Amino acid sequence: MKASDIKKGNVVEYNNGVYQIRDIERSSPQGRGGNVRFRFIMYSVPGGNKLDASFDA
């Protein structure tokens, strides 16, 4: 699954845990050759522990 395909509310498996996506930030740097970067705020299911992770598109 690509980072650009993930939406708020999706449930994903990451690092042997199950997480629900609560917030997504997309940053695209200015200039040549800049990669789009996604930052996800996730909460574990069950438990509700917060995890902040960033990925390149």
UniProtKB/TrEMBL annotation:
Q: Where is the Translation elongation factor KOW-like domain?
A: 2-57
Gene3D superfamilies to which the protein is assigned, alphabetical: 2.30.30.30
Q: Which GO terms describe its molecular function?
A: translation elongation factor activity
**Origin organism of this chain?**
Stenotrophomonas nitritireducens
In terms of SUPFAM superfamilies, this protein maps to:
Translation proteins SH3-like domain
What are the entry keywords? Elongation factor, Protein biosynthesis
Which protein are we looking at?
Elongation factor P-like protein YeiP
InterPro entries assigned to the protein according to its UniProt record, in alphabetical order:
Rib_uL2_dom2, Transl_elong_KOW-like, Translation_prot_SH3-like_sf
